[in-house]
């Protein structure tokens, strides 16, 4: 790649698009081959009309005059030989995959469950019952994951209420139920829930729920009943003037688990691998390599999440489905 001058402009035509335009020109340039300079006719694209005597860049094989010669600005010619991609290519690629990262990591983020109780109470949709925890275990939830039709094992808290009977609070499948069994079993508290805003095809579903223990700790999940024919008591509806726990006062109950720590470590390693792939891009790679590295970055995070999910799935499957966990077998991480 060498700098040279345009000897003569043979033709030049302005090509316009909806918002921008460019010149497509045929010019004569002097190419410094090994055998000596040679005037060559080439086509070039530029934002301004080229003129004789102007300096431009030429890409050629010094020992092979019979091969094709390229003319243009230095950036565009560097891209042809795998050089650094232009700023906008890098910016748009990184921006696109940063958005994918954000949606992948935080797309299902929800606000503070306790804050949601206050909104539901103002809307007249908040219900509450006094309950006691009878056991913690794993069971098949009637609601499948959002990306499939297969029902999965999930951690389950078994509740009893004098007014209603038995209720089940299903937790996220990334929660380890083992360390929850000992601090929860036998504890009393209140379960708050709001019914879904639309009709669901799940017969036993009650709604989004938050179990707030008397010690001001909470666990959030999805409430279900073992018998869909039973009606919840009318007295469970929380009046708009009734006090509910203040936002920020109850703290989430989430004991340390070696299984969750291992799964989080898997996600962190994948995240670091994805960052490493993106860090390489600004140091100078071609367009293809830029897109490939950005794709590797997103795939690393996706695969990390998938692998962590499989770790938790195998752990839940190793527990006895449908039965409560014994509180004497808890092992702290």
What does this 3D model show about the protein?
With 333 residues, the protein is α+β, with helices and mostly antiparallel strands. Helices cover 30% and strands 31% of the residues. The protein has six helices and twelve strands.
Topology of helices and strands:
Blueprint: E1 2-16, E2 21-33, E3 36-46, E4 55-59, E5 70-72, H1 74-80, H2 87-106, H3 113-122, E6 127-140, E7 153-161, E8 165-170, H4 178-184, E9 188-194, E10 205-213, E11 217-224, E12 251-252, H5 258-280, H6 287-318
Parallel strand pairs: 11-12
Antiparallel strand pairs: 1-2, 1-4, 2-3, 4-5, 6-7, 6-9, 7-8, 8-11, 9-10, 10-11
Q: Approximately how much beta-strand content do the residues carry?
A: 25-35%
Mean pLDDT: 79
- Strand tally is 12
State the shape. Answer: elongated
Please compute the radius of gyration using only Cα atoms. 32 Å
Helix content: 25-40%
**Major β-sheet strand ordering:** 6-7-8-11-10-9
Task: Give the CA-CA distance, first to last residue.
Answer: 61 Å
Class based on secondary structure composition and strand pairing: alpha+beta
List the total number of helices: 6
Unreliable stretches covering 5 or more consecutive residues: 328-333
The description of the largest β-sheet is: 6 strands, antiparallel, barrel
H/E element string? Answer: EEEEEHHHEEEHEEEEHH
């Amino acid at each position: 790649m060498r700098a040279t001058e345009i000897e003569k402009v043979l033709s030049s035509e302005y090509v316009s698009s909806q918002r921008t335009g460019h010149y497509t020109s045929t010019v004569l340039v002097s190419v410094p081959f090994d055998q000596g300079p040679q005037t060559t006719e080439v086509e070039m694209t530029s934002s301004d009309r080229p003129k004789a005597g102007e300096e431009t860049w030429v890409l050629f094989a010094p020992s092979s005059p019979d091969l094709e010669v390229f003319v243009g600005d230095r950036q565009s010619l560097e891209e042809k030989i795998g050089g650094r991609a232009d700023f906008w290519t890098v910016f748009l690629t990184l921006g696109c995959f940063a958005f994918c990262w954000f949606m992948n990591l935080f797309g299902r983020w929800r606000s503070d469950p306790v804050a949601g109780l206050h909104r539901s109470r103002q809307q007249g949709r908040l219900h509450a019952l006094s309950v006691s925890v009878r056991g913690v275990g794993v069971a098949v939830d009637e609601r499948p994951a959002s990306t499939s039709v297969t029902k999965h094992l999930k951690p389950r808290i078994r509740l009893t209420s004098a007014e209603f009977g038995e209720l089940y609070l299903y937790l996220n499948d990334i929660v380890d139920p083992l360390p929850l069994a000992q601090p929860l079993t036998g504890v009393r508290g209140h379960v708050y829930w709001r019914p879904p805003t639309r009709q669901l095809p799940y017969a036993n579903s009650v709604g989004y729920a938050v179990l707030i223990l008397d010690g001001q700790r909470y666990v959030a999940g999805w409430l279900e009943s073992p018998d869909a024919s039973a009606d919840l008591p009318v007295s469970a509806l929380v009046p708009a003037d009734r006090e509910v726990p203040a936002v920020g006062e109850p703290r989430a109950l989430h004991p340390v688990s070696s299984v969750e720590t291992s799964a989080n470590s898997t996600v962190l390693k994948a995240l670091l691998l994805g960052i490493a792939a993106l860090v390489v891009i600004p140091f100078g790679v071609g367009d293809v390599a830029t897109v490939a590295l950005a794709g590797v970055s997103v795939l690393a995070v996706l695969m990390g999440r998938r692998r962590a999910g499989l770790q938790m799935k195998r752990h839940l499957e190793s527990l006895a489905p449908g039965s409560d966990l014994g509180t004497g077998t808890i092992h702290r991480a």
